[in-house]
Amino acid sequence: MEAQVFLASGSPRRKELLTQLGYQFDVLSVDVEEIHQEHETPLMYVERLSKDKAQAGVKAIEKAKNKYTPVLGSDTIVVIDGVILEKPKDFKDAKRMLLALSGRQHQVMTAVTIATPEKIRTKTVITQVWFKTLSEQEIEQYWESGEPCDKAGSYGIQGSGGRFVSRIDGSYHAVMGLPLMETDQLLHQFL
């Protein structure tokens, strides 16, 4: 069956979530530099990355003469006290982030962009997340599991990091990396 959409992401979580929605899709590998600009708020940053990924995908498929299939780009960031927590560089960085999140509330922002050469639409979902207080031992054991290495804020709610989350207000799937309802609504505008 032919793809209804291209996913400009290598994230296994986004692939799983888009599959849950029932869309036929192909994955595009796009290279977008994820560097926060000084003038950008966290919201501006996550939306720009989402748009950059979708537009990089549109450029890639235009070369392949498949320009009418929409491209989905998405990005997720973790924000606490206005500070963006990206993917950790190493254990020390992950520990710093997890200690900052420990016993506190933070925001997870996920922006989703659907783009074609003619049209682009973005929707951002902000979810409030509360963490229990973490011990240094819990943080070390979690790092050793390998799970936090490629995740914004050094945790994945869908994995063993979910045991740190005492509650959320918003979209669980957005915290995973792709809000289902909003993504479905956006895709309906293109398909």
What does this structure look like?
With about 190 residues, the protein is an alpha/beta fold. The protein is built from six helices and seven strands. The chain has helices at about 10-20, 40-65, 90-100, 135-145, 170-175, 180-190, and strands spanning about 5, 25, 70-80, 85, 105-115, 120-130, 165-170. Strands 1, 2, 3, 4, 5, 6 and 7 form a seven-stranded mixed sheet that branches. β5 (about 105-115) and β6 (about 120-130) form a beta hairpin. α3 (about 90-100) crosses α4. The protein is elongated. The mean pLDDT is about 95.
In short:
With 191 residues, the protein is α/β, with parallel strands linked by helices. Helices cover 35% and strands 25% of the residues.
